[in-house]
Design a protein that fits this description.
binds S-adenosylmethionine, 5-stranded parallel β-sheet, about 240 residues, 6 helices
C-alpha cells in the first residue's frame, strides 16, 4: 500500500536513523541496493522478503524495471521498503522513483539517510567546512545522466571544498581540469574508500598526485584545504591551518 524510500546511511547499521530502523522492522518486503551494508540488514523484519536489485556502474537502464517492481509490490504488500545507500535524494535516483510511484497513484514516504557525501569525509576525520580553511562545500557527481563527464574547470575554487562522488575512475581527468581551472598543484586531496566499513581506507596527497592514487570505488574524493585535516587525531593536524 505504501512504499517507503529509506536511506540506509553510508555503511555501519548504527548510522541508520531511528525512523529508518523502525520502518525496516515493519517491512513486508525490502528492495535493496548494492551499496547497502549487511549490518543494516540486521534491522529488517526477519519475516520480510528481500529482493536485491543491486546495480553496478553502467547498468542504469534497469531503473525502469525497478520502478515497475515497486509499483507491482505495492499492490501485494502493505509496507514496501526501497532501501538505498546513503540518502535517497543524493545521487540515489530517489526522485525518479518517487515520481514514478506518484504517477502510478502509489503512496510514498521518504526517510532520509546520512549521505556518504558528508559522512564519508568525516569518517576520515575531514570536516567538509572548517573556519578559515573552507567557507563552503560543493557536492558533485563526476558524471551526468548520460555518462558524460562533469566539467570540473568551473568548479575550481580555493576557498570551497569539493566532494566528488563516482569520480574514482576519472581521477586523472578531474585533477587535470581542476588545475586548468586555476587550483594549485599543491591543493590537498583525500580519497576515502568504503567509509564506515571495516575496509575503510584513506589515501592523501595533492592534485599533483591524485591521478596516480591506487584507489577503487565506492569512494569519495575530497579536494581543498580540509583534505589535509584529520581531526580523529588532532596531533597530526597542521596547527597553522586551524
Ligand atoms: C550512486 S551514488 C549514491 C550516493 C548515496 N545516495 C549517498 O547519499 O551516499 C554512489 C557513490 O556514492 C559514494 N559512496 C557511497 N557510499 C560510500 C561509502 N561507504 N564510502 C565511500 N563512498 C561512498 C561513492 O562515490 C559511490 O560511487
Amino acid at each position: 500500500m505504501t512504499v517507503y524510500l529509506v536511506g540506509a546511511g553510508p555503511g555501519d547499521g548504527d548510522l541508520l536513523t531511528v525512523r529508518a530502523a523502525r520502518v525496516l522492522g515493519e517491512a513486508d518486503v525490502v528492495v535493496r541496493d548494492r551499496l547497502v551494508d549487511e549490518s543494516v540488514m540486521e534491522y529488517v523484519n526477519p519475516q520480510a522478503q528481500v529482493i536485491d536489485v543491486g546495480k553496478g556502474p553502467g547498468e542504469s537502464f534497469r531503473q525502469t524495471s525497478i520502478n515497475q517492481l515497486l509499483i507491482d509490490l505495492s499492490q501485494r504488500y502493505d509496507t514496501v521498503v526501497r532501501l538505498k545507500g546513503g540518502d535517497p535524494f543524493v545521487f540515489g535516483r530517489g526522485g525518479e522513483e518517487v515520481l514514478a510511484l506518484h504517477q502510478a497513484g502509489v503512496s510514498c514516504v521518504v526517510v532520509p539517510g546520512l549521505s556518504s557525501a558528508l559522512s564519508g569525509p568525516l569518517a576520515a576525520g575531514i570536516p567538509v567546512t572548517h573556519r578559515g580553511v573552507s567557507r563552503g562545500v560543493t557536492i558533485v557527481s563526476a558524471r551526468g545522466a548520460s555518462g558524460e563527464m562533469t566539467d570540473f574547470r568551473g568548479l575550481a575554487h580555493p576557498e570551497l571544498s569539493l566532494v566528488i562522488l563516482m569520480g574514482v575512475e576519472h581521477r586523472g581527468v578531474i585533477a587535470a581540469q581542476l588545475l586548468e581551472g586555476g587550483l594549485s598543484e599543491d591543493t590537498p586531496v583525500a580519497v576515502v574508500e568504503r567509509a564506515w566499513s571495516e575496509q575503510q581506507r584513506t589515501t592523501r596527497g595533492s592534485l599533483r598526485t591524485l591521478g596516480s592514487f591506487d584507489v577503487r570505488p565506492p569512494a569519495i574524493i575530497v579536494v581543498g584545504g580540509v583534505a589535509a585535516l584529520d581531526l580523529r587525531s588532532v596531533k597530526l593536524v597542521d596547527v597553522a591551518l586551524l
